[in-house]
Amino acid sequence: MVYAQIPDIIVGRLPRYLQVLTWMLSDGIQTTSSQDLGERIGISAAQIRKDLSQFGEFGKQGTGYSIPFLVNQIQAILNVKQVWNIALIGAGDLGHAIARYQGFANRGFRIAMVFDIDQNKIGREIGEFIIQDIAAMVETIRSADIKIAMITVTAQSAQGVAEKLVEAGIKSILTYAPVPLKLPPGIFIQYIDPIIQLQHMTYYLGN
Amino acid sequence: MVYAQIPDIIVGRLPRYLQVLTWMLSDGIQTTSSQDLGERIGISAAQIRKDLSQFGEFGKQGTGYSIPFLVNQIQAILNVKQVWNIALIGAGDLGHAIARYQGFANRGFRIAMVFDIDQNKIGREIGEFIIQDIAAMVETIRSADIKIAMITVTAQSAQGVAEKLVEAGIKSILTYAPVPLKLPPGIFIQYIDPIIQLQHMTYYLGN
């Protein structure tokens, strides 16, 4: 299916829609309204309608949205009806937590390989993986044609690792290190940083 | 300072503005434009201007925005000129990673206490903290008047822990467990889920 180009700000909200819709499905809920969905997500009903209208007519006046249909459409738009392999760089506490994360199943991703620089970790198991030597990372990722990496190394190491990932053919990087990555155009970087969500919450806590 | 009520969707973008502006400051950059800031964040210049105009006139036509001034204003709006204490529940791999996270400094937060249910962990050190028994959590959090908690327990335990946190007077919960929390109105919940960012990126990777 071909969609017109969608503003990135809307694309960024679709995974959250998908998450909440999937939770509703697992609660046995089959239909929703823009009002209901908006309340669950914390977005106005008008914004929900506007966002979803980008992809054609999902809802019918009066009957609301079919959740299975909406889930299917959003999965197709986000290209997550397939399973993407991910290279995980950094086998510290956070790397271990991600390797064992219960949230990957049926959502379009699986960790495929794990690398670290620490000779004491290389060769050890992490979840179902053997930690591989970061020295072999570029060639291994390139051979496996992996396009997505997650970085859980220290702030000091993140830029160097990211540059090697670009060399390996990685196109999308999700980093947990609290530093900006400076990479060539065409590489899509996302940051996971709990402070972002904490600061959102303190707006409502007042002083 | 008193601001008019700001739509939540804009509030949610302000921490990302603050993060990028702080990075610019640490690179020695003192002024920016909506165009420049938009490119760094991945949002249109028009959206940046619209968002910032919610809080009054920050920028001057032709001279751009003063970054120190903008940082100061956004910190005030988000109530992060003070330091908020956080209770961390769950001393597993992820809890350890958070307790040692390098990204908290000077951003308005500090981990103040850590709890776990595992008798093998209670009493041990995690970073600079002693892991406390979750059985004492409600009273300890209430006595310390802590309003923010981070949950890194398993998916199965998250709802039960969250209910106890509400009992303890917690108003804002940031959870890493990939399950929806069902809590009374007035409790602000945020989810950290790497799949959300990964699915955003696969939109651009195509099939």
Question: Could you give a short description of this structure?
Answer:
Chain A is of the alpha/beta class and 207 residues long.
Structure, explained:
Two copies of one chain form a homodimer. Chain A has 207 residues and is α/β, with parallel strands linked by helices. The first copy, chain A, folds into two domains: 8-77, Orthogonal Bundle (Arc Repressor Mutant, subunit A), CATH 1.10.10.10; 84-195, NAD(P)-binding Rossmann-like Domain (Rossmann fold, 3-Layer(aba) Sandwich), CATH 3.40.50. The first copy, chain A, contains nine helices and ten strands. In chain A, α6 links the parallel β3 (84-89) and β4. Chain A is elongated, with a radius of gyration of 19 Å. The N and C termini of chain A lie far apart (49 Å). The mean pLDDT of chain A is 92. Chains A and B meet through α1, α2, α6, β10 and α9 of A and α1, α2, α6, β9 and α9 of B.
